[in-house]
């Protein structure tokens, strides 16, 4: 699935990253923070709800999805990784969950449940102190 994400919906900022990169880490801002206005993507309602669930704390109350990537040593690699993560999130959000078909427990299943409850009850009764009256 290929998504046309409008450039107006995305903003990128670059930060100083920790991790691999040696002395370069102290000089160059290689980490990328991708901010996406989810409302500008015009997602169908089911996909928007699922995206909110998948994103969790990455989604702000204002409807912005914030992805921070600092895995690679170069700005370009982190930028590509951030866009790939965004694409993966959108693909997963567009996959509909299978509808659950409601079923009722069978009469035999109900009987087994009651029998196991009775056995457990009897077992617990035998653990109590004897009544000598």
Task: Explain this structure.
By secondary structure, this protein is of the alpha+beta class. The protein has a domain at 7-93: Double Stranded RNA Binding Domain (2-Layer Sandwich). The protein has four helices and three strands. Strands 1-2-3 form a three-stranded antiparallel β-sheet, covered by helices on one side. It is elongated and about 85 Å long. The chain starts with 9 loop residues before the first strand and ends in a 6-residue tail after the last helix. The model has no long low-confidence stretch (mean pLDDT 87).
Can you tell me the CATH topology of the domain at 7-93? Double Stranded RNA Binding Domain
- Beta-strand content estimate: 5-15%
Overall geometry: elongated
> Percent of residues in helical segments?
40-55%
**Would you tell me the overall average pLDDT?**
87
Structural class: alpha+beta
Stretches with pLDDT under 50, minimum 5 residues: none
| Tally of individual helices | 4
Features:
133 residues, 4 helices, alpha+beta, Double Stranded RNA Binding Domain, 3-stranded antiparallel β-sheet, single chain
Fold blueprint:
Elements (H helix, E strand, L loop, with lengths): L9 E6 L8 H4 L3 E7 L7 H11 L8 E6 L5 H19 L13 H21 L6
Helix pairs in contact: 2-3
What is the compact description of this entry?
The chain is of the alpha+beta class and 133 residues long. The protein has helices at 24-27, 45-55, 75-93, 107-127, and strands at 10-15, 31-37, 64-69.
